[in-house]
Design brief:
about 45% helix, 3-stranded antiparallel beta sheet, mainly alpha, 7 strands, Arc Repressor Mutant, subunit A, cis-regulatory region sequence-specific DNA binding
DNA sequence: TGGATTCTAAACAGCA
DNA sequence: ATGCTGTTTAGAATCC
């Protein structure tokens, strides 16, 4: 068991997440990996407009316009991303990250595919107007990605069609790492908010 | 440049 | 019959 293995088991412990853990006091690993901290800080929902000035307006205007609307393109890496505001920007998260967040954000850590859709829709309004193919991509990810596992329904459980999906614990660190690699992972936004003068984006995608 | 990963589209089967 | 879910395949784009 070397240090790499340790970090893989608890990628937060040796990262800057450790600071969050200290700041938040009694948070244990489950609470962190469950993204409850994310909910508490409300980062996905409400980065205030003031923090971003008028950039949001400008950046939407900066997108190339096409007949019938804006081109669906990933949010530019040099502009802070607010999913509730930048509804024309494709979220800079992979579908596996979106699914991961949705499942981890659920009380039972398991969701039917329909609730995964709903979570994504409510947290990333971009998809409300996106072509419906994204749902196919979600199902494709659930089906193909080893990180996600179907859960047997309990006896008599009636939640409608389909299976419940959960995160395979063996692959959870991989998903967390993938999430950390995205430039607008809530961690980076937290850093920006808590220590704006010391933040360095060097090494992050789009920051050279 | 090539492999790995991710996204998108599509076809199909099973089920309620 | 219809719509949803899950699986699979294929091709394009992107990243390393």
């Amino acid at each position: 068991m070397d240090s790499d293995d340790e970090e893989l088991k608890d990628p937060l412990s040796s990262s800057c997440f450790a600071e969050m853990r200290l700041e938040k006091g009694e948070l244990d690993d489950d609470e962190l990996t469950s993204l409850s901290w994310l909910q508490e800080t409300d980062l996905l929902k409400s980065l205030s407009v003031d923090e971003q000035g008028e950039d949001g307006q400008k950046e939407n205007e900066a997108f190339p316009k096409v007949e019938g609307g804006l081109l669906p393109q990933t949010h530019p890496p040099h502009i802070p991303y607010n999913p509730q505001k930048h509804i024309n920007s494709k979220p800079p998260y992979s579908f596996s990250c979106l699914i991961f967040m949705a499942v981890e954000d659920s009380p039972m850590k398991r969701l039917p595919v329909k609730d995964i859709y709903n979570w994504i829709l409510s947290h990333f309004p971009y998809f409300q107007n996106a072509p419906t193919g994204w749902k196919n991509s979600v199902r494709h990810n659930l089906s193909l990605n080893k990180c996600f596992k179907k859960v047997d329904k309990e006896k008599g459980q009636t939640i409608g069609k389909g299976s419940l999906w959960c995160i395979d614990p063996d692959y959870r660190p991989n998903l967390l790492q993938a999430l950390r690699k995205t430039p607008y992972h809530p961690y980076h936004q937290l850093q920006m908010m808590s220590a704006p003068t010391t933040v360095s984006f060097t090494g992050l995608p789009g920051y050279g």
